[in-house]
């Protein structure tokens, strides 16, 4: 079958980042794409939000809410059938906030080994209490103890 993911030239191939574990791996379905087979940006944003929230939740040792999407770049299109890996790293911890950088890589043309960085974003989460109010991010030592 001829599909966008096996007819589009591979713009780069460096493989997946070495020595890092993705927070999420997902494969978009036809219902996540427009009529041209390009996956909706909103679908990608939603998965990025979830991926970024995972290290933020661990660091906050509890609930977080997204307060800001600071930057979001759709560097290359995502196609139905791409295997997406979401890598998320905390880049800043404030009093109540945690900022996370998320990078997304697509594995496509799997028989020809094509890996493409498709998206990069930075989001800020706020640690919240049971009343949805900001709470202090706990000191790192208390998490490791
Ligand atoms: C781990 C393994 C198991 C996991 C198992 C559980 C999995 C779990 C998965 C759940 C996955 C859900 C992931 C999606 C999470 C949503 O989608 S949440 C839904 C969307 N977001 C919302 O509805 C939030 C709505 N906003 C609010 O409720 C309030 O703004 C908040 C978030 C409570 C914050 O209250 P506020 O009074 O506005 O905050 P304020 O005191 O002014 O500022 C708080 C901090 O934010 C910073 N801030 C304020 N404005 C900005 C801005 N524009 N830009 C950047 N920073 C800002 C401030 O500088 C401050 O930082 P610190 O100096 O304290 O560090």
From TrEMBL:
Question: Does the keyword field hold Magnesium?
Answer: no
- Spell out the InterPro entries in the cross-references: Cytosol_ACT (IPR040170), HOTDOG_ACOT (IPR033120), HotDog_dom_sf (IPR029069), Thioestr_dom (IPR006683)
UniProt GO molecular function: long-chain fatty acyl-CoA hydrolase activity
**GO BP, one annotated term:** acyl-CoA metabolic process
Gene3D superfamilies the record matches: Hotdog Thioesterase
Where the record annotates domain HotDog ACOT-type, the positions are 18-131
Q: Which UniProt keywords apply?
A: Hydrolase
Listed GO CC annotations? cytosol
Q: Which family does it belong to?
A: Belongs to the acyl coenzyme A hydrolase family.
PANTHER family registered for this protein in UniProt:
ACYL COENZYME A THIOESTER HYDROLASE, ACYL-COA THIOESTER HYDROLASE YCIA
Could you tell me what this protein is called? Answer: Acyl-CoA thioesterase
Q: Which organism is it from?
A: Rugamonas brunnea
